[in-house]
Amino acid sequence: MFKARMKFAKEGRAKYISHLDLMHTMQRTMARCQMPLWFTEGFNQHAYVSVALPLSTGYSGEWELLDFNLLSDDVPPHAVEQLNAVFPEGLRALEIYPLADGGMPLRDIAWSSYRITWTLAYGIDPNAFAADVTELFARDTVEIVKRSKRGEKTVNMRELMRDLSLTVSGQTVVAEVVTAAGNNNMSPEYLTRAIAQYLPQYPIVGAAYHRLCVYTDKMQAFR
Predict the structure, then answer these.
(1) Sign of the CA dihedral 106, 108, 111, 112?
(2) Which residues, in sequence order, are CB contacts of 184 under 8 Å at separation 6+?
(3) Does the reported pTM lie above 0.90?
(4) What digits encode the pLDDT tens for the residues 129-163?
(5) Strand ranges (E), 22-150
(6) 51 touches 61 (CB < 8 A)
(7) Is 6 within 8 Å of 95 (Cβ atoms)?
């Protein structure tokens, strides 16, 4: 058995594929291009495929990571091109490599960078919005209720984010930000919630989230 990792993009209409459907899509696509997937033994055999940090439905990303097992001794030649030839619209393989060839353990994931695109209600000054959002997240403390499977708790989200920058483009404001991932994961959606809580004078009519990269705790790009 040979362990491999694929970096892929999930964009366009594919961002609406749920995590479970994405797993099925990956398995069917690999079968179509005759990738020698390793299957579990027993009565209910299935291929082992696992996505690190699955995106929420509706999010897009260009640094998505899929681990899988192969029966071959190496990644098949032209595997990326063969997958892209049969992938549905919006999914795109970028790189496939052996985990033994420098692949990092998933426990090393600590941060993710995102691009958030906020669309403001008509009549709202985007420059004033950008200035007030910059001031909000420059504070030492921005408390918000964070929800998880273990319940709700109030956290200082400033401890879970860094490197915020804003760009105004018409009636939209684009933010790039790094948020905590792994055990202390904070979705970029919490920035939108914080704006609604602390700056209610700026109604946001649309928000789009796109993951740009995943990092270790030392801000090294995860691979």
Answers:
(1) negative
(2) 160
(3) yes
(4) 999 999 999 999 999 998 877 778 899 999 999 99
(5) 49-52, 60-70, 91-98, 111-120, 143-148
(6) no
(7) yes
